[in-house]
């Protein structure tokens, strides 16, 4: 589903991704962790072409992201992305937030978009809030709307970039619950998070990236958590700090 092959990227003279390779198959839930500034956001944004890369290749469902002939808006419409900050449109109701891209990007009718959007809103448990504005919702609820909005586009894969790190602690659980459910339903997911409880529960792989965008670990969850003695010193050090 996602193939990242030998990807490197620089900002000026500073290398932020170093020869990264990651393969994500249909139905995989891959958790990416690593210290601040290690290139996690850069890598996940590169997957849907929001960040150009200088070396290597990325394909999503066989489509080469960095080929100038690729229709990026079309590709992005099939890749759901949820960021740290929810980025809902503040002047639009929840329902309008859910339908606008379906209508403008996918060309769906108002009725069709609304039916799909409300179905997804129900899935994240927020049907009762369909006519509210984002400012009337808690951070956790806004992030669940953002997830419902991404799902309304019928994505083939969902990318999450620290979806709970801007939330008050009491709201983290409700967002993770939605993500756990999504994983259980077979959604292909690449998730940047430091929530190791989530990783233990649903990840099939855990990747650790170190500063400079170097992938130091890419292994199954059982191996990652079950055999700490096999982890690299940098990974152990990082896990000791966050666990
Ligand atoms: P992470 O998400 O792991 O915290 P990022 O991918 O945001 O890391 O950033 C990786 C590195 O790239 C950091 O050193 C950051 O300072 C640098 N960086 C990110 N965006 C830019 C930019 N637009 N220009 C220059 N450097 C950047
Ligand atoms: Mg980041």
TrEMBL record:
PANTHER family: AMINO ACID IMPORT ATP-BINDING PROTEIN, GLUTAMATE_ASPARTATE IMPORT ATP-BINDING PROTEIN GLTL
Residue intervals of the ABC transporter domain: 2-236
Superkingdom, taxonomy of origin: Bacteria
Subcellular location: Cell membrane
The family this protein is said to belong to: Belongs to the ABC transporter superfamily.
Major site of localization recorded for this protein: membrane
Name of the protein in question: Candidate ABC type amino acid transport system, ATP-binding component
InterPro entries attached to this UniProt entry: AAA+_ATPase, ABC_ATPase_HisP-typ, ABC_transporter-like_ATP-bd, ABC_transporter-like_CS, MetN_ABC_transporter-like, P-loop_NTPase
Source organism: Ramlibacter tataouinensis (strain ATCC BAA-407 / DSM 14655 / LMG 21543 / TTB310)
Keywords: Amino-acid transport, ATP-binding, Cell membrane, Membrane, Nucleotide-binding, Transport
Pfam families for the chain: ABC_tran (PF00005)
